[in-house]
Design a protein that fits this description.
The protein is an alpha/beta fold and 355 residues long. It has helices at 11-15, 18-27, 42-45, 65-78, 91-100, 132-137, 161-173, 199-212, 227-241, 256-263, 275-280, 296-299, 333-336, 340-353, and strands spanning 2-6, 32-37, 53-56, 83-86, 104-108, 119-121, 182-187, 216-221, 248-249, 266-272, 287-291, 309-313.
């Protein structure tokens, strides 16, 4: 069997497809699995042991993208796939799936695109409390798969050896004693303002965590475009901590593969519903996730129950979950109402349980 899987765009969405890869490999051990992904999320699956071929296509705004897509479509058609799974469901991925000419092309039933597939799976557009892994796993239904189980099919992102070496060197340069120090990783940015916990709240969290135990080192990380914001948070925390300021690190950057390797050395990860949280979820690190406009039921780490996960959200807000296009109250209260003390308590529970 020759399979093609297409999942474009976001890091977390790609992470949530990895249980499917393992399940396909288990059912079809001799199959060939090809995966199409965009550059930003490609490190998630670059070392995945179940993939035979990884195709990294251009981003939607890349110069010459249409010509590149036409070339890619010809390449995919020549590969003569038996089954194509469009895990993305957008216009571009649907066209790529259709262009393969595969005898089985499975995708979501979406108005205007269903004709490109040979088999369509219903997709409820409502923001239901149903996990994203389950939503994507629906596409395995026509192949006779039962539902997913995080105990058997957790998300995964193997560590690249080069990334592990780079992280070890960066920790040494930051004067982190990996044998003695308890490393806490805080991801303080998000792809849009709807998912950003206030900077002042992160500052109070950092100060409380550092003061609670002398061996703790807090590493503040962010997306590439928000390094300055992360450094302001780290700087404000150091100003508040005084003599303990040296235990806050905000001047070391990690790419996505390195962030995954960093999780293996961390005692705790804290962050909002964004790519780094989902990368952390591929490991056993204790996690505190902050959910504003999104639901933990949809986006919490998909992994065995023995791993510590604390999910914090504000219940009973009539405006959540939302589509993250416009804040109806206008004040992002779904995150503003998450108090630093609440996150500190969750972090201390996670640290205690994860020892």
């Amino acid at each position: 069997m020759n399979f093609l899987l297409v999942r474009l765009r976001l890091i977390g969405d790609v992470v949530f497809t990895t249980p499917i890869l393992r399940a396909l490999r288990r059912r079809y051990p001799d199959a060939r699995l090809t995966y199409v992904v965009e550059p930003h999320a490609s490190p998630v699956v670059a070392a995945n042991p179940h993939i035979d071929e990884l195709i990294v296509t251009s981003t939607p705004d890349a110069p010459g993208r249409l010509a590149a897509d036409f070339k890619l479509a010809r390449r995919l058609r020549a590969n003569r796939y038996d089954v194509v799974l469009d895990l993305h469901g957008g216009p571009r991925s649907a066209l790529l799936a259709w262009a393969t000419g595969a005898p089985r092309r499975i995708g979501y039933a979406v108005t205007g695109r269903s004709w490109m597939y040979t088999e369509c799976v219903p997709r409820d557009r409502r923001l239901r409390p149903r996990h994203s892994v389950v939503n994507q796993w629906d596409l395995l239904g026509p192949l006779g798969f039962d539902g997913p189980d995080p105990e058997r099919d957790a998300t995964e992102m193997p560590v690249a050896a080069s990334a592990a070496r780079a992280v070890a060197a960066k920790l040494v340069s930051a004067a982190v004693d990996v044998e003695r120090d308890r490393v806490i990783v805080l991801h303080v940015s998000a792809g849009n303002p709807f998912r950003r916990w206030p900077a002042s709240s992160f500052v109070r969290l950092i100060a409380a965590l550092v003061r609670a135990e002398a061996c703790r080192r807090v590493i503040v990380v962010s997306g590439p475009s928000e390094h300055e914001a992360a450094r302001r948070i780290g700087g404000d925390a150091r100003s508040e901590l005084g003599a303990d300021a040296g235990r806050v690190i905000d001047d070391v950057s990690f790419d996505l593969a390195e962030l995954r390797a960093l999780m293996d050395r961390a005692a705790l990860f804290v962050g909002g519903d964004s790519g780094p949280l989902h990368v952390a979820g591929t490991t056993g690190v204790p996690i505190v996730g902050l959910y504003g406009p999104t639901l933990a039921a949809r986006s919490a780490p998909w992994r065995p129950a023995r791993f510590v996960t604390e999910s914090i959200e504000v219940p009973d807000l009539p405006c959540r979950p939302c589509e993250q296009r416009r804040c109806e109250p206008g004040d992002f209260r779904c995150l503003e109402l998450i108090a630093p003390a609440q996150v500190v308590d969750a972090a201390e529970r996670a640290l205690a349980r994860g020892r």
